[in-house]
């Protein structure tokens, strides 16, 4: 039997299986929320950039494509680095999350400009804002 697990349950389960989970100083929910938001942002920004490439007005979307590609790359790496729990260097987490806040804000700001005429930009901007918020909440706890 195959069961589809929601991504937040899987992320939470894998964190629980870490042998050193008792030594973790960061609240699990903040961590899970941030990893999940980053994974969503990676997916949505990748799709947003790709959809933009196929739009007839693509030359007007160059900046948003660039922002989305940067955002998806940084969010992907953030989700990976936050997933790793063995011998965490907190200063690396802090720097990574700060970078993620910056790219998400830059991407959302650009995609918001196109949100009124493109649904994919509206979804992308909202997803990036959610990720920015989750990263900020985690940053305060680091
Ligand atoms: Cu993020
Ligand atoms: Cu984005
Ligand atoms: Cu976008
Ligand atoms: Cu993003």
Structure, briefly:
This protein has 142 residues and is mostly helical. It is 74% helix and 0% strand.
Could you explain the architecture of this structure?
It is a single chain. This protein is mostly helical. It has a single domain, classed as Substrate Binding Domain Of Dnak, Chain:A, Domain 2, CATH 1.20.1270. It is 74% helix and 0% strand. It has 5 helices and no strands. Helix 2 packs antiparallel against helix 5 and helix 4 runs antiparallel to helix 5. The longest helix is centred in the first third of the chain and has 27 residues. The chain is elongated. The relative contact order is 0.17. The mean pLDDT is 95. The protein binds copper (I) ion (CU1) (4 copies). The site of one copper (I) ion has 8 residues, from helix 2, helix 3, helix 4 and helix 5.
Write the layout of secondary structure elements.
Layout: H1 7-16, H2 28-54, H3 62-83, H4 90-112, H5 119-141
Bound molecules: copper (I) ion (CU1) (4 copies).
One copper (I) ion (CU1) is lined by residues 45, 48, 68, 71, 107, 111, 124, 128.
Defining traits:
142 residues, mainly alpha, Substrate Binding Domain Of Dnak, Chain:A, Domain 2, 5 helices, 74% helix, elongated, binds copper (I) ion
**Percent in strands:** under 5%
What is the SS-derived class?
mainly alpha
Could you report the average pLDDT, rounded to the nearest whole number?
A: 95
- End-to-end separation in angstroms reads 40 Å
Order of helices and strands: HHHHH
Helix content: over 70%
Instruction: Profile the largest sheet.
Output: none
Small-molecule binders: copper (I) ion
Stretches where pLDDT is under 50 for at least 5 consecutive residues are none
């Amino acid at each position: 039997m195959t069961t589809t697990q929601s991504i937040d349950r899987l992320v939470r389960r894998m964190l629980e299986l870490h042998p050193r989970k008792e030594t973790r100083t960061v609240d699990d929910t903040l961590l899970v929320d941030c990893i999940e938001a980053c994974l969503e942002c990676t997916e949505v920004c990748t799709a947003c950039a790709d959809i933009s490439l196929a739009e007839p007005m693509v030359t007007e979307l160059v900046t948003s494509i660039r922002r989305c590609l940067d955002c998806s790359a940084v969010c992907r790496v953030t989700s990976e680095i936050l997933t790793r729990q063995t011998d965490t260097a907190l200063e690396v987490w802090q720097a990574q999350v700060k970078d993620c806040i910056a790219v998400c804000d830059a991407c959302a700001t650009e995609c918001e400009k196109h949100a009124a005429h493109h649904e994919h930009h509206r979804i992308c901007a909202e997803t990036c804002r959610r990720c920015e918020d989750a990263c900020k909440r985690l940053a305060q706890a680091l």
